[in-house]
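Researcher: Structure for this, please.
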Amino acid sequence: MMSATSSVVAEEQDNVAEGADRAAAAAEATSGVDIRLLDDMRDLAAVRALYEGIWDTGATNPPVTADMLRALVQAGNYVAGAFDDAVEGRDLVGACFGFFGPPAARTLHSHIAGTMPRVRGRHLGFALKLHQRAWALRRDIDTITWTYDPLIRRNAHFNLGKLAASVGTYLPRLYGSLDDSINRGDETDRILVRWELRSPQVVGAAAHRPHLVDAAAARAAGAGIALRPDDSEAPRRGALGAGTVLVGVPADIESMRETDPRRAADWRIALRDVMGGLLAEGATVRGFDRAGWYIIDGQEKS
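Model: Predicted structure, token format:
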């Protein structure tokens, strides 16, 4: 017989899962898409082609193959696609897939999520992540992890602000050398984020209450500046002695990689040294201000 405490916990879990289902459905409707799980080989081949187009890899070097996606589905993992309701034939315009972590960890690792450029501004990435969250909660998964490039402002804002994920680890050169139009010529440093699906911050984010932080207020409260763009958008390092520091990133690192690859490489090294070093010492990332600043809380340095 279930105890009273167990019954309350089960009811709370059901409430969170039901709320996640409603939030996912609302985001899907707002984006004007139909998001569904995929297992047909034709759909999985379309996912491969979508990713090839987004990352401009070409057919000889796809981010994932249809047969690999089919194997992931067969093993019970998450593969979903978003189909545009506004287009006859309902074109595939976004896709996301992930795989389970160690059994005891109750985590899903979300490996690749991508959307077509023409649907930007419709919040499709948000809808895909909420669909993934609802799917995971129905399978007793508490946490979803994924990685992102910490130099890209919009990704930092999306992950840490709009989704309220938290920063776990700085991972230098995680994927080695990638030969696609987005990553070519750059080292693949990544941030591992953790999305605690039942946390109040994430529940709030799913209800369109993002996790916002204010770099100007942190500065006024005594935060130092550990790294920032100078007047020429080059990285300028500062002091690390304050208990809280701001770490800035350039406005458009992707364009910089094309126009000034040496300066972009300087940014990669500077952020690895500063942010990676702070996290290795036990500092925590409070959040990301959309103006281009990570706020990082750590120990006072002597």
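Researcher: Any notable elements?
Model: The two ends are 57 Å apart (CA to CA). The longest strand covers residues 92-100.
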